[in-house]
């Protein structure tokens, strides 16, 4: 049995035409770190709030260890929560903030003292026990919030963009800290973020949200290496796209006639596309071709290898790599310029803005949806 199960859960806010969460089904395993990832407005927070009990469910069922929880009030759900705004009590010290959930639960004073000590050690704040929140940095305040969410040994910890207010370096440090805490404590964590690298750093599995629905739920490497559709391919990592029609196919390998002219081979048709081609045949079916920037090679204009003609628009040094932006000669109007990620020494001589080049890739690195 799943630890938590969303079964066809919909949330329609009063006065809204579109549901914020639209028939979502999802299973969360005990002890896992599951992240809800998606763009702003895709329904992540609403899903988390329904799980926490701060928002009601319009239809469908949420179960915790098999029991429906819609009628269980938030304070009876035994879940720790951490939000973007620290929501610490400003007039209480760090230790008193962490002790608060234990006092509410009426634990004995000696037990509270022992648990607060342990929690302070866990988040490396022993020396800050007596300070007020306004005497702490943003990162330290979020450590207190984490300690307070963990101290009563909840069965589940929910976090909604807890690191969004921190600068990049501190955010990355805190990601590793949360990852370590999850491993040490072993509690089930459900985490919301719009940041794909944060999701990949932290998560056992990631549910990719888009417009109130889950596009794909899988381990991070599978989302990156085998996205189910162009949305997932574009949301996790960069992606280049072109549109076209199927000119021929065999299994997962398709020949794509690009909308702007030219033809390429993609060896990784999505399961859905391969099945559709199998049953209905190619018949000029529309497809989207996707290739990651790090999988492209830049060739000289005269090169005869299978490749796509393009003009360099820009070449940007990004420290550990170069990013080339190139416009395809025959791209359909709605296709953005392609990005190519090149190793520091790997830029073709003379590939300056305005230069004519060819972009090549191996069929195994090209997806078709
Ligand atoms: P996310 O956390 O992914 O950014 P939300 O769950 O906050 O998304 O929002 C999903 C959709 O629901 C958005 O269109 C948002 O405007 C809408 N929404 C969120 N909260 C409310 C509310 N309290 N009342 C009405 N609409 C809301
Ligand atoms: Mg949100």
In the CATH scheme, what's the topology name of the largest domain?
Rossmann fold
The coarse overall form would be: globular
Unreliable parts? none
**Ligands (ions, cofactors included):** adenosine-5'-diphosphate, magnesium ion
Compressed to H and E, one letter per element, the order equals EEEHEEEHHHEHEHEEHHEEEEHEEEEEEE
Query: Judging by the overall fold, what is the CATH architecture of the largest domain?
Result: 3-Layer(aba) Sandwich
Main sheet characteristics: 6 strands, mixed
Strand content: 25-35%
How many DSSP helices? 9
Give the strand order, joined by hyphens, for the main sheet.
Answer: 6-7-8-3-9-10
Q: Number of DSSP strands?
A: 21
Which features would summarize this protein structure in a list?
369 residues; alpha+beta; Rossmann fold; OB fold (Dihydrolipoamide Acetyltransferase, E2P); 2 domains; 6-stranded mixed β-sheet; binds adenosine-5'-diphosphate; binds magnesium ion
Task: Please provide a written account of the structure.
- The chain has 369 residues and is an alpha+beta fold.
- It folds into 2 domains: 4-232, 3-Layer(aba) Sandwich (Rossmann fold); 238-363, OB fold (Dihydrolipoamide Acetyltransferase, E2P) (Beta Barrel), CATH 2.40.50.140.
- Helices cover 25% and strands 32% of the residues.
- It has helices at residues 44-52, 94-104, 109-122, 138-150, 168-185, 196-202, 220-225, 230-235, 271-280; strands at 4-11, 21-28, 33-37, 59-64, 67-68, 79-83, 156-160, 188-193, 205-210, 213-218, 240-250, 253-258, 263-266, 268-269, 286-291, 297-300, 308-317, 322-328, 338-342, 356-360, 367-368.
- A 6-stranded mixed sheet has the order 6-7-8-3-9-10, sandwiched between helices.
- Helix 2 runs parallel beside helix 4.
- The longest helix has 18 residues, at 168-185.
- The radius of gyration is 25 Å and the shape is globular.
- The structure holds adenosine-5'-diphosphate and magnesium ion (MG).
- Magnesium ion (MG) is lined by residues 44-45, 192.
């Amino acid at each position: 049995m799943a630890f938590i199960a969303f079964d066809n859960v919909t949330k329609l806010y009063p006065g809204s035409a579109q549901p914020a969460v639209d028939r979502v089904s999802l299973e969360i395993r005990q002890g896992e770190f599951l992240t809800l990832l998606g763009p702003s407005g895709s329904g992540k927070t609403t899903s988390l709030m329904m799980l926490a009990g701060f928002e009601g469910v319009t239809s469908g069922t949420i179960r915790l260890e098999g029991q429906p929880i819609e009628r269980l009030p938030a304070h009876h759900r035994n879940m720790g929560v951490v939000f973007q705004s620290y929501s610490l009590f400003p007039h209480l010290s760090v230790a008193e903030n962490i002790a608060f959930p234990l006092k509410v639960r009426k634990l004995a004073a000696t037990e509270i003292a022992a648990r607060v000590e342990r929690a302070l050690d866990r988040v490396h704040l022993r020396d800050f026990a007596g300070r007020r929140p306004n005497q702490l940095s943003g990162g330290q305040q979020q450590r207190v919030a984490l300690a307070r969410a963990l101290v009563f040994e909840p069965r589940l910890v929910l976090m909604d963009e807890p690191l969004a207010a921190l600068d990049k370096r501190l955010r990355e440090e805190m990601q590793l800290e949360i990852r370590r805490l999850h491993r040490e404590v072993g509690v089930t964590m459900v985490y919301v973020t719009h940041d794909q690298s944060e999701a990949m750093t932290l998560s056992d599995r990631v549910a990719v949200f888009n417009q109130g629905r889950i596009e794909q739920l899988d381990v991070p490497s599978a989302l990156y290496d085998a996205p189910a559709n162009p949305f997932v391919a574009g949301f996790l990592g960069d992606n280049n796209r072109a549109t076209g029609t199927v000119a021929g196919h065999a299994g997962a390998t398709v020949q794509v006639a690009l909308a702007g002219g030219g033809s390429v081979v993609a060896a990784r048709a999505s399961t859905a596309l391969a099945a559709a081609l199998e049953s209905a045949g190619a018949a000029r079916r529309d497809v989207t071709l996707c290739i990651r920037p790090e999988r492209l090679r830049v060739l000289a204009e005269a090169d005869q290898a299978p490749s796509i003609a393009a003009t360099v628009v820009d070449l940007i040094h990004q420290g550990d790599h170069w990013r080339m932006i190139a416009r395809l000669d025959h791209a359909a109007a709605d296709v953005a310029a392609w990005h190519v990620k090149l190793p520091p020494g790997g830029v073709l001589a003379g590939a300056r803005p305005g230069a004519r080049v060819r972009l090549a890739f191996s069929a195994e690195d090209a997806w078709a949806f």
